[in-house]
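Tutorial handout. Part one gives the primary structure; part two gives the three-dimensional structure as tokens.
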Amino acid sequence: MGAQPAPVPPLLIACALGIEHLALRTGDRDGAGGPVTVLRTGMGPKAAERSVTRVLADPALRGAAVLATGFCAGLAPGMHPGDLVVAEETRDPRGTVPCVGTELLVKELGRTLPGRTVHTGPLTGSDHVVRGPERSALRATGAIAVDMESAATLLTAARTGGRPVAAVRVVVDAPEHELVRIGTVRGGISAFRVLRSALPTFFEWHRNVLLPRR
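Part two.
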């Protein structure tokens, strides 16, 4: 008898908000290369750390690739709601985590979402919604965008074992388009559609960075 094929490693996609979770659950699941878990962590770095730690303790997710996604605030002038951010690394006060497969994600997003602007660079973490002068201060560090969960998600994932990690975010808040309140995100129909349409790109990233090459 021939050798049994190796089990397909899983993919964990983590987001914070209910509307992000809805976009990912209703996106096109065709093309998934293996088991996919979509996790709603709740808002903030502490919630993300708790949720990701708990889920990755499940033996079924041993060796899972982890991709953090959802909405973010852009820091660079000229960014617009609906733009995409592919992190080269995530940062927070506890450390920096390099991302894997950034070039592949940029290429695939260009194919699946033609016409959408894709930005690459450091994605920084915060424990609150960033506004005004604080946005400029974070930009001065070299970061191109900020959110509250990606850095905590990837740092937690990296600490629980060697695995590919990445972060892809959709801009809903930018220097010239600042949100009045976080609840405004619920009306972000464009960002919702962009996030939902990005799902096949996440599957392509998973296949290329984690699954055995033939």
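Part three, for discussion. The CA atoms of residues 74 and 87 lie 12 Å apart. The chain has seven helices and eight strands.
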